[in-house]
Amino acid sequence: MKFNSLIPELSVSNFEKSLEFYTKIIGFKIAYQREESKFAFLSLQRAQIMIEQVNNTWKTGVLKHPFGRGINFQILVSHIDLILNSLKTHKYPLFSKPQEKWRRQNNKLIGQKEFLIQDPDGYLLRFAESLGTKPL
Prior knowledge:
With 136 residues, the chain is α/β, with parallel strands linked by helices. The chain has one domain (9-54, 71-135): Roll (2,3-Dihydroxybiphenyl 1,2-Dioxygenase, domain 1). Helices cover 16% and strands 45% of the residues. It contains two helices and eight strands, in the order βαββββαβββ. The protein has helices spanning 15-26, 80-89, and strands spanning 9-12, 29-34, 39-44, 47-53, 72-76, 96-105, 108-118, 124-135. The protein has a four-stranded mixed β-sheet, covered by helices on one side. The radius of gyration is 16 Å and the shape is globular. The mean pLDDT is 96.
């Protein structure tokens, strides 16, 4: 298994609920798991994250819902519609509806179709698929 250079590890309040959300609703696969630690390493296409039941190992302050205030995790996928359909099937609410975004990178625009959701602990997840590039 090849590890990305940056892999977020999310502290979660209910490991089983979060694992079900990430695997059954979003479509992440369990690369490996340590059940005794309530830990899982998850992957979705080229994205990797870890989830672990809240413990005192990483505690830097009081955790209060929504977790991860001030950060969103962009997860690039080949097609966001697969995830959107699953969210709809599971009646899971969107934080922001799908939309096209074009952002400047030097002398060109990079496009994405994206939407945001919050996981069970409130971490903000931005799923995006590439729309390519175009000149300014």
